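notes to self, project folder thing:

trying the whole complex as one job this time. last attempt i did each chain seperately and stitching them together was a nightmare. two parts in total, labels are on each line so i dont mix them up again. if this works i'll redo the older ones the same way
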Amino acid sequence: MGASVGIGALIMGVSLLSIFAIATTVIYNQVEVALEVSDPDVAEEPDFKISNLANSGSVQSLTLNSPGGLYYPGTLDFGSSCGVPPTGSYTVSSEEWQLGPFLAENSPTSGIYDGEWFSFQELDDEEGAVTNWYVWYNVDTDDADPGIAGTGIEVNIALGDDATSIRDATLTELNSQVALTEIIFSPGADVIEAAYQNSGPALNLAISDPSVPFPILSNGDGGVILAPTLLTPGSNCPSTPTITIIPSSPGGVGGEVVVNTMEWDYSFDLTNEGGNSVKLSEIYSTINGGSTEVLSSIPTFTVEYIFPGEKISIVLDANSADTVSRVAISSHGMNIAVEV
Amino acid sequence: MADGGASNMILLVTALLICGAASGILLQSWSQTATSVGINQEQLALNSKTKISFSGDLGKASCDAVSDQITIYVQNSGSSILDENEFGAFVDGTFVSLVGVPTFLNGATIWNSGVVVEFTLQSGTSILCDGTEEKRITVVVGTTTSGGVSGSDSITEVVKLG
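result (full assembly):
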């Protein structure tokens, strides 16, 4: 009987101990969860500040709005607003003309070349140095030099010379001038063709008589802007630069070259004003309301975190055709944005 | 005496049986209670570790007025792993469907802590994307199932469609 009472007490004791152990475990778990709930393992909302948002552009292409005239070739000035100013140049057309067809000396009547002349201007270089020339005809050595401005070239012909021989005699005299080197003279069909080696403006070909014995067949103006060339795109331009044409010699009117396309990058400073370090890969940026991407910079980050009080500079090659007007930064519930 | 001894023995055996049965019932009920409380605790713990936040530009949310679609970005700000397919969204209180499949940003393949996922929502009403319209967006997400339980979190933000 005594043993039975002992067994019963043992059963009850073990049962109560088991229940106590279970209850203790439950209470422990509840306390643990309560601690987790009161101090959850979640990211705290960081506190950032964006400052110094700026566009950084570079010129990608140019457009010739107006070719103008009377320009010497030269350079393009993009102003001083860009950190590294772009550079550019432009070319201009070369003067060219055709004189003729030459008439025969006796067509329609003899003596039509007596004292007749034509004048032209040679471009000695592409920086404004010129030489004036004129050619005059002495028929049977009894005509006088007209004495117009420039260096005279006498062409001796005879009564009754045909057009070809007069043209050839003229070409011979032109090509024999030692100082006349910047114009290539060549024969056409009873005409003389002149092609200038240097580009730029020159006084137009002029003749003593508008109809006979040698009319002006064509006169192509030099000094018309042909094409602007972008040499270097520059960088850190806060806005689209305005271009000024700078010829190698003063002159020129009506020409206009403008920027056709810009490529925009942007930069800004990001300061951690919160009390926690934030992983850079958990910060996201949104440019101009476009797609959201993880924050990046050029060169790439060499650190993993931005610490409290730390300021980092973000420079991005956005390759955007438009300027950056709005940048938003978000991370773990913090959403901020700034606009230019 | 012998009669008295037998009856005492019967009483003792009966008492032992009742005692054993009571112990068994007590242990079973406490075990069930502990299991139930444990599951509840795990649920509470997982919920406390589950947190999401809106990412992207709330003042100029990406959208498409032609197809009436709104793109939102949701970041896992907790420490549990979220399931991108356990996702629900409401625009101005109306449930909206998801367009396409969610896209992980930054090369992630699992919705871990810190990872942002892009969702495209199909609005049931016409939207303007000119910076004049504001929408109240609610997002609900769930975690991957762990130990038979899964956590969830929701967030509501007003965004300006730009």
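what i see at first glance: The mean pLDDT of chain B is 89.
need to look closer tmrw
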